[in-house]
Amino acid sequence: MLEIRDLHVRYGGIQAVQGVSLSIARGSIVTLIGANGAGKSSIIRSIAGLNKTISGEIFFTRHDGEEPVSLRGLKPEDMVRKGISLSPEGRRILPHLSVEENLYLGAYSRKDKDEIAADLEWVYSLFPRLKERSWQKGGTLSGGEQQMLAVGRALMSRPDLLMLDEPSLGLAPLLVREIFEIIKRINAEGKTVLLVEQNAFAALSVAHYAYILEVGRVVLEGPGRELLENPKVKEAYLGG
Ligand code: ATP
User: Fold this and answer.
1) Which atom of ligand 1 is nearest to the CA of 39?
2) N or C: which end of the chain has fewer CB within 10 A?
3) Given ligand 1 and candidates 41, 168, 197, 213, which is best to mutate, with the most ligand atoms within 8 Å of its CB?
4) Among residues of the chain, what percentage have pLDDT more than 70?
5) Predicted-assembly ipTM surpassing the 0.85 threshold
6) Is the pTM of this model over 0.90?
7) 41 lines ligand 1 (CB under 6 A)
């Protein structure tokens, strides 16, 4: 569904991503793991059209049988129309709007009113807490609730590829488990998921395939379950 070839991302003199190639199979959960600054966010921000100074190629095939299209040079709003949505790190919800208004914002590029309403109900079924608090201002939600809202809002564009940047950041252990269960459900209901995570254990446990990044390069890749058993991964990312 998505293929990246030889991606480089520069910020001034800093080479944040140095020749990364990876692919995401339709229907899978793929995760990018790595220490702070390894380049994970830079990669998904490049896919979302948020990084300008990139080289390399990013090809996307929305439906089976279609010709791959290059995403290079497209704007973030084009990505949403193409079926790619990002739930950014740090939540970035609108604090003065209600939960429901924030969710509707995720559907801003759509005109299919009935389907938007159906998707809102779907998001509420994934996150009953958001339904209970639909009237509440986004800024007054707890950290975990804001995280759920960010994921819900990304789903409201009805993406085929959902990208999640650190969805478990700052959450208590019980909520971490809950958010990963929800990610599995979203995937089981047909979405392809690209997940960037610091929580390597949880991410590798749900991912069909994983890439381990160190200073802008892929150093290891394989099925999530296999990497969980890999001694190097255990030592460097899973606390021995
Ligand atoms: P984290 O887990 O801490 O979010 P990451 O793996 O997502 O890290 P990136 O956010 O992609 O890493 O950052 C990769 C490198 O690029 C880091 O050294 C970071 O400081 C640098 N960087 C990221 N964004 C910018 C920017 N807008 N301007 C300058 N440098 C940047």
Assistant:
1) 11
2) C
3) 41
4) 99
5) yes
6) yes
7) yes
Query: Could you give the domains of the chain?
Result: 1-83+193-240 (3.40.50.300)
Report the alpha-carbon distance of residue 108 to residue 203 in Å, rounded. Answer: 30
Cα distance between residue 191 and residue 27, in whole Å: 6
Distance, CA 189 to ligand 1 centroid (Å)? 32
pLDDT in tens, 10-53: 998 899 999 999 999 999 999 999 988 999 999 999 999 888 77
Residue 37 in contact with ligand 1 by CB distance below 6 A: yes
**Residue among 115, 97, 98 nearest 156 (CA):** 115
Cα 151 from Cα 99, distance rounded (Å) = 12
14 lines ligand 1 (CB under 6 A): yes
45, 51 contact by CB (below 8 A): yes
| Tens-digit pLDDT profile for residues 142-173 | 888 899 999 999 999 999 999 999 998 878 88
pLDDT of residue 240: 63
- The rounded Cα 14 to chain-centroid distance in angstroms is 24
Pocket test residue of 40, 47, 166 for ligand 1, highest count of atoms within 8 A of CB:
40
* Residues 6+ away with beta carbon under 8 Å from 185: 126
